[in-house]
Amino acid sequence: MLKKLFSVKNLAIFVFALAFFSTAALAAPAPFVVKDGTWYRQNNGKLSIALALNDGLATEAGWIYWLFADPDAAEQTKGMERGLYFYDGQAQKYLFLPIAADIDINAVYVSPNGEKFFLESCGKAESNDTALEMYTFKDMKAAFRVGKVVSVVTSPQWIDAGRFIYSRFEPGTSRGLTDDSANEWISLAMYDAIADKEFVLKAATPTANFTFLALSEDGVIALE
After folding, report:
1. What are the tens digits of pLDDT across the range 161-194?
2. I want to staple 210 with a disulfide (CB 3.0 to 4.6 A). Which of 161, 193, 199, 202 is the partner?
3. pLDDT tens, 118-145?
4. How would you label 38-59 residue by residue, b for 16+ Cβ within 10 Å and e otherwise?
């Protein structure tokens, strides 16, 4: 069953005029350069075609690209430090976030103003739960974490520059199913970066889960 849970229009929209990378410490020199729209990796003064960066993310601060480099998994990233690299559209500025060897990156969600991002990751261990962490480009430090989220139906999404919506599993709950991945209750939640607080928009019940599907002009649509 589809349900519209609340009106986006009735909630305040927070907008910040901070340029991407403006206050962050930048690493140098950048491993990549751009020539005629093609990304090249710099290695000991030589250029080679780089592993494709993810599609650019349009923000109020300009285009942002990101690449997860795992030197043990991709030949094009041999010799690079394992982690996430963020770039502007011309590879003139970049930031780096180290990623532990037992973690893989599924997706990156950058806020509309280019100030913050949520990192979706999963562990390589037997319990490979999907987690979300929010970072600010200003200091590249994690400010918020959700330990176990749902991302197989619809990806989490920024509502605006301050609010991020997602579906999460409720720890300690069980529906008595044999499939562990679907056993825990699922609630619809939102993190408000301004209040630095998580809000449960629709709590799971003994008979119903609530999974985020989409945003519309006048509300949030969830699957019950």
Report:
1. 999 998 888 877 777 776 555 678 888 889 999 9
2. 202
3. 999 887 665 567 889 999 999 999 999 9
4. ebbbeeeeeeeebbebeeebeb
